[in-house]
């Protein structure tokens, strides 16, 4: 088998050492397939060589070319993968392994599985996605498409039944995959070749219709091209103008659509078409202006795929005009870069050059490609599929709408993120969700392959402010968070102020802080007026958790100015007594302050200084005011006992759920008690060791999400003890 055409092609874009690498792979494959022949009688080596030629037409790297030449040596010749790795390296071995996996899937399909699978379009789509997932490396899919294209070109020697099976598989799986990858050059050939075997009579009929006026059509295109080129030159637009061939299968699909509308073959406008290639995006629109100055556009026939690319990232301007002799003519305008993408798709970006800058366009293509993934659907008997994941797809999840559309979301996204991705109004009206037909909570983390159905109310209820609370985990995406905030900003300011007041009161009450401190807290957020501060809370710009964190942060204004370093204390104390040295301090058990609470010290007669919250009833009722001293929180990482009360409807598993959540927050439970109420509710008192008021606020938010929980508050015990 002469490999001169292959070598001549790769010499156009590969250096000598890489050409030699490909030639070495050829000789290895030649030896492995030495005694094998295809059913046509040709030496078997002709197939991998022709596959490599197709890969070379896409300008893929030497690794891909070597894998194309070696793709059958393991399965058909028994060559171990280790031999390939030792001779050509781990990357070539990896691609050959991927090809072998895809061949196994293909074999299962041809053994009867495809007939059942293609009954459902959704299952067919799953198969296409599975091919990409299983491949591990997108180059494997490209090589597999080249392998299939050559097999389709040489299908004639096979039995008719075998031809039908392979053609059907190609039409249902491979051609759509080439389309999704944007490789038009492969897509139309796979479609036409499959169509030729699946519907031979219709194929020949359309071929005759197209050929009947071929000479007249070519002369017409040449005349129109010359006129348009002259006008573009006059306008100073550097452009290349060519005729565009229409594939037989694309004519067939268009004829079927037109027949349903009562139209005929002669009504197909883009059977005659021009392509205009220019240097830049602005030139595309300038060229469109020249076209319209020559010929009148047909209404409803214009598509701007530059501003709105197709799902496979195709870009270009498409317009049908009434041209010479009152004949409709489609004109496609694109840049040379857009044309390369249209012809070769993702392969146009696949270049491996040492020191090359990151290819932004390739990254965009990979981002789109992620939408093809479906991790959890697999063919019967192909358990290996689930364990094979592509590394570049680890930071995203791909979920389905009930109609089978794929939506890409960041990992950790929830049904609410999904709802807002579909439509803002759907997110605002969301009241529940089903994942794979099962009801889930709105903070459920979506997984690859999930089918998500959003349940929405018909009333204009609007979102909940709780959705913005990061502790509750309802929202992952910035897009959804911003849409919710926008909704609340649009509400009346008076409503936002009232809503903010309720939220602030609730947060301060459960943290055990007096509402009278609202002015001080507003100052912490740099608000001069309390109303503006409350409005910001009401519209979601400031969350309850953020308030707790701000309160817990040390107030820079109360810090003493830098001075000479004092002697290092013998032991770390959580509290500093202002104006005094290292005094003995302990936390008052009556109010149990934690970092973030405003505190004050009470000088006892025998136990040093007892630390209370400023609003502690014992402090407010204290007669000996001279024994009160100013104190501030230090910077030790100690924990402090805090008692909280959880009020909830009594049910099986309630205590387990509450204590498990506390444990998940890495908070120790020092004591617990239960109190049954007469109205079927339960009061759970927990003494916890917490380090900051922010940690306590986060725990409160999550506890309120436990099913059955009515309220969570911080309590003070033994109000007249412990001074």
Rg from C-alpha positions? 36 Å
- The secondary structure category is alpha+beta
Give the DSSP E fraction (strand runs of 2 or more residues).
15-25%
* Strand tally: 21
Q: Tell me the count of domains.
A: 6
CATH class of the largest domain: Mainly Alpha
The CATH superfamily of the largest domain turns out to be Hypothetical protein af1432
- CATH topology name of the largest domain, in short, is Hypothetical protein af1432
Q: If classified by CATH, what would the architecture of the largest domain be? A: Orthogonal Bundle
What would you call the shape? elongated
Sheet with the most strands, sense and barrel status: 6 strands, mixed
Low-confidence stretches: 112-126, 349-394, 554-572, 718-723
Would you kindly provide a written description of the structure presented here, covering whatever features stand out?
With 723 residues, the chain is α+β, with helices and mostly antiparallel strands. The chain folds into six domains: 4-198, Hypothetical protein af1432 (Orthogonal Bundle), CATH 1.10.3210.10; 210-346, Beta Polymerase, domain 2 (2-Layer Sandwich); 395-488, Beta-grasp domain (Ubiquitin-like (UB roll), Roll), CATH 3.10.20.30; 491-556, no CATH class; 572-633, no CATH class; 640-715, ACT domain (Alpha-Beta Plaits, 2-Layer Sandwich), CATH 3.30.70.260. The strands form six sheets. Strands 1, 2, 3, 4, 5 and 6 form a six-stranded mixed β-sheet that branches. A hairpin with a 5-residue loop joins strand 7 (396-400) and strand 8 (406-410). Helix 1 runs parallel beside helix 3, helix 8 crosses helix 10 and helix 10 packs antiparallel against helix 11 (184-198).
């Amino acid at each position: 088998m002469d490999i001169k055409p292959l070598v001549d092609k790769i010499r156009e874009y590969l250096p000598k050492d890489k050409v030699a690498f490909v030639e070495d792979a050829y000789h290895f494959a030649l030896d492995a397939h030495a005694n094998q022949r295809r059913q046509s009688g040709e030496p078997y080596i002709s197939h991998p060589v022709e596959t490599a030629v197709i890969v070379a037409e896409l300008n893929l790297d030497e690794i891909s070319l070597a894998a194309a030449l070696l793709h059958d040596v393991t399965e058909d010749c028994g060559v171990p993968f280790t031999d390939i790795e030792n001779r050509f390296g781990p990357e070539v071995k990896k691609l050959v392994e991927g090809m072998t996996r895809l061949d196994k899937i293909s074999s299962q399909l041809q053994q009867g599985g495809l007939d059942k699978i293609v009954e459902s379009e959704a299952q067919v789509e799953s198969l296409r996605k599975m091919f990409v997932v299983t491949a591990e490396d997108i180059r494997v899919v490209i090589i597999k498409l080249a392998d299939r294209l050559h097999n389709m070109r040489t299908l004639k020697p096979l039995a008719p039944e075998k031809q039908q099976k392979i053609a059907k598989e190609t039409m249902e799986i491979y051609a759509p995959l080439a389309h999704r990858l944007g490789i038009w050059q492969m897509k139309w050939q796979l479609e036409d070749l499959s169509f030729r075997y699946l519907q031979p009579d219709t194929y020949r009929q359309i071929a005759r219709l197209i050929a009947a006026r071929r000479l007249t059509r070519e002369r017409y295109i040449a005349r129109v091209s010359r006129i348009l080129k002259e006008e573009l030159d006059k306008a100073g637009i550097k452009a290349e103008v060519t005729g565009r061939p229409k594939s037989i299968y694309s004519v067939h699909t268009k004829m079927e659509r037109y027949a349903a509308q009562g139209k005929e073959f002669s009504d197909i406008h883009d059977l005659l078409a021009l392509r205009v290639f220019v240097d830049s995006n602005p030139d595309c629109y300038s060229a469109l202006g020249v076209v319209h100055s020559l010929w009148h556009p047909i209404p409803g026939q214009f598509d701007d795929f530059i501003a709105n690319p197709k799902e496979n990232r195709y870009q270009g301007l498409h317009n049908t005009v009434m041209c010479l002799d009152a004949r409709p003519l489609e004109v496609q305008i694109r840049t040379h870069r857009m044309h390369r993408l249209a012809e070769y798709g993702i392969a146009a970006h696949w270049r491996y050059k040492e020191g090359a800058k990151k290819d932004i366009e390739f990254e965009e293509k990979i981002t789109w490609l992620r939408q093809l993934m479906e991790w959890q659907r697999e063919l019967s008997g192909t358990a290996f599929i689930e364990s094979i994941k592509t590394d570049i797809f680890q930071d995203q999840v791909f979920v389905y709408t009930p109609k089978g559309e794929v939506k890409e979301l960041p990992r950790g996204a929830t049904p609410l993120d999904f709802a807002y991705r579909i439509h803002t109004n759907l997110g605002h009206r969301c009241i529940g969700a089903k994942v794979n037909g099962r009801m889930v909570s709105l903070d459920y983390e979506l997984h690859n392959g999930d089918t998500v159905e959003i349940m929405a109310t018909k009333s204009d209820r609007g979102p909940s402010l709780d959705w913005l609370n990061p502790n509750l985990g309802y929202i992952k995406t910035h897009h959804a968070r911003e849409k919710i905030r926008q909704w609340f900003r649009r509400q009346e300011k008076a409503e936002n102020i009232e809503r903010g007041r309720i939220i602030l009161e609730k947060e301060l009450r459960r943290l055990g802080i007096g509402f009278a401190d609202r002015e001080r807290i507003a100052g912490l957020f740099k608000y001069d007026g309390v109303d503006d501060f409350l409005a910001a809370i009401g519209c979601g710009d400031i969350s309850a958790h953020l308030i707790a964190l701000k309160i817990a942060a040390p107030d820079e204004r109360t810090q003493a100015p830098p001075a000479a370093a004092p002697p290092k204390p013998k032991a770390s104390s959580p509290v500093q007594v202002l104006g005094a040295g290292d005094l003995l301090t302990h936390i008052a058990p009556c109010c149990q302050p934690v970092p973030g609470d405003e505190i004050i010290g009470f000088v006892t007669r025998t136990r040093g200084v007892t630390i209370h919250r400023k609003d502690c009833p014992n402090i407010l009722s204290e007669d000996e005011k001279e024994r009160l001293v100013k104190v501030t929180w230090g910077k030790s990482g100690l924990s402090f006992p805090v008692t909280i009360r959880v009020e909830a409807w009594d049910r099986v598993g309630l205590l387990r759920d509450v204590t498990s959540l506390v444990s998940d927050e890495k908070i120790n439970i020092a004591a617990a008690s239960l109190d049954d109420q007469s109205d079927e509710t339960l009061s759970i008192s927990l003494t916890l060791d917490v380090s900051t008021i922010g940690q306590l606020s986060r725990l409160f938010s999550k506890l309120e999400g436990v099913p059955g929980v009515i309220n969570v508050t911080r309590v003070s015990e033994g109000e007249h003890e412990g001074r």
